[in-house]
Amino acid sequence: MTIPLGSGSGGLIWIAVVIAIVALASNPENIGGTLFWLAAVGLVVYLFRRGKKSPPDGGSTIMDSNESVASYGQSRKSVAGSESVRNPDKGEREFVMSASAQGKVKSSSSSISAAVDEDLVHASYHNLESSKSFRIPPAPAQFGHARWLSSTENVEIAGVAISGGLIYVGTALKAASGIVDPCLIDPSKDVAKRADYTVREMGYWPSYSAISPTARRAYLNWLSTGRADPDADIGYVFIYFYGLERRAVFEAVNDQTAKADLPAIAAELRRLLAIYGPRSGSFQGYGTALLDWITLANLPDRSYLQPLPSSPRSYELPLYIRAALGQAAADRVAISADLALAWVKLDPRSLLRTPTLRCAQEFNSLFKLKYLAALGDGLVLPRNRTKLKLVYRAASAGFRGVDEPRLTFGDIPDVSVLAAPFKKLHEIAEAATNELESLSRYLGRNPGARSTVEALLLLPVTLWPESAKGSIEGLKERMDGGMVTMPFHELLGALGNSSTLSRERTVALARVLEGMGIGMEPDVLGGAKQPKPEDQIALFVTATDDLKSRDAPDYRLAALALQLAAAVATSDGDFGANEISHLHQQIQSWSHLSRNNQRRLVAHLRLLMVAPPSLTALKKKLESLDPTARGSIASFVAAVAQSDGTVSPVEVRMLEKVYKVLGVDPQKVFSELHSAATGSEPATKHALGEVKEAGFTLDASRIAVLQKDSEGVSAMLSTIFVEETEVVDVAPLVNAAPAVEQDRVLGLDEAHSSLARLLLSRPRWTKAELSDAALDLDLMLDGALEQLNDAAFDAHDMAFFEGDDLVEINLELREKLAA
Q1: What tens digit of pLDDT does each residue of 224-266 get?
Q2: 25-50: average pLDDT
Q3: Model confidence over 648-682: pLDDT tens digits?
Q4: Domain count of the fold of the chain
Q5: Which residues form the domain of 788?
Q6: Is the same domain home to 160 and 195?
Q7: Burial of residue 675 (number of CB atoms within 10 Å: 0-12, 13-18, 19+)
Q8: CB under 8 Å to 41, separation ≥6 — which residues?
């Protein structure tokens, strides 16, 4: 038999056993002697072990490999490379472990459960050759106490690569309530191989540690794919949100490193709210509240002078806006146009119609222009009694049951409850919205036409780009206070349009030009025919305070006479200089016309020289004239025909046709020509004027008498030049982007709705605070509170609030209203 021998106490024990067997075999009856030898050997072994010194490098009890892994995973600090650990007996020693234990470190996850002090981590090795010992490799970074990953850090969990950080990863992270924080991504938890994050897999209060392996895989997939899919289940968004909430509210208070992450968290919240806010009222409310907390945690003294952070629209006015307004009220400073715009756009009392959304940039600019025009330096707000306060209500279940964090702002009032200042802003917003309705309808039918001349013409001129304004100023310089003619397409080209316009847009162009002091002939605003691109137009200086005088009957009658005169003057093929000069003199002598009308008639004459009308085109207009008016026009045309000193046979024949169309005896042509040539006074005076040396002159006083005597003539003349125009298709507005309309809370009136929104902004109120709010809204507190509770019971079968001296808001009702 081979006896295994070894050094140390093990060898001595084997020697004692051999001696005892030999002694007993040689003398079976001497049992006492045998026992003596066994006792002696035992004593020697005991003394040997007692007196034996520790090895030079110190010894310690060898731990079971599984126990080592567990202790390792529970340490507060991860051990890397040759990190030292403390030996309670012999000081610090190098941390080493066998190769088999090394493998178990990688595979063991269930044994890693909680953090313990690193002083409890022990390891030792046999006093063997150094070549037979191995170092323990460092544990994966995500094992052990949780760590926050910044936005620049990446991590891989269960084979899923996640970039962008802003998450907690580790195996231990307690929430304030004592439970495992729901946001913690614990890599020791099981993860399924496949999952779909658009499928609901969780309850109302999700926690990564408690959800199923399939849901964990879905969440990791959502994190790894940009966190932007609008179809993702909102539960995954909330798990992610819990981590942002913990970092921003509960860690940034005393941790400067966490405070440095606030800008990145705020930017991430705005991005998430833009994607998921419209899909979840609950997330909209919680996300906005956290954004408010971040922006208000370091509120500057005069925030109304600072650039405003972007905020989503929700069921209450964002607190940063309320704080800026309150500071302005406390300092008695007028609020800026930007702050007023933010108030009116974000206040839930605003009924924002489609133009404010479809034409958002134009609305913003126009509102600010109108605000400053109406209120000068701006609106100064009164200082009311309701004080501003922020009580943060956490979304995460990890902070339920703990005292809510809160921010107070001294004596800064909450002016958002006031009705009168907001009403002024709302009226300005409505005026701006109305001016943009035409543009909004056009863009609704033509989404890609924002940069076209058609869209430009529907904008108020004050909002035109500088290039377009420069083009109009160039036209004014060319006119030099007078008139200029050009093809229609040249005008369109100056405004950046390469094709013709519809009649509706041409009318809009003429209206815009007149608003800038430029008249246009042909007068499409007065019903003239739409010019073709190659047709000549005349642009002239006009007075913006006399734009409607074209509708006066005396102007229309004079324009008709001018058209008839041009038809006769060109009947011989030559519209001579004398004839043109005579007509100019006549226009200048018609003192009953406004200066604006005289300019327009001169421009009209300029176009008649190029394209005189035919008698056929004028016949309809002439048929409806009063007989006396026809006679006056016939005498005027005869005077024009002889103004060049001669009347050709062709002109005589043309005059006869004109007289015939006018219903005047053609035989009078010769007598009228003779009277005009000799300067003699005809036998009878015409109702509208008389022929003198200078020709036919309209008499303003006689026109007035005629108008007074015959209302029918005035009505007829007001429509005499109206052309048959195309029917403009004003299609009903298709709401490509439906207007945001915030209904009154629980169907209450405006004042009680404002009180309800104010109460919903905090989880609890004192009776004194509610009294101040009711006074600001001109409400009786007790009656108002009773009405709120009645409305809540009617709508949702639950109370709006509970309590007397301290009023507790029903958070479940708030959830329902936010959704």
Answers
A1: 999 999 999 999 999 999 999 999 998 998 889 999 999 999 9
A2: 62
A3: 776 677 777 777 777 777 777 777 776 665 555 44
A4: 6
A5: 745-818
A6: yes
A7: buried
A8: 12, 13, 15, 16, 19, 20
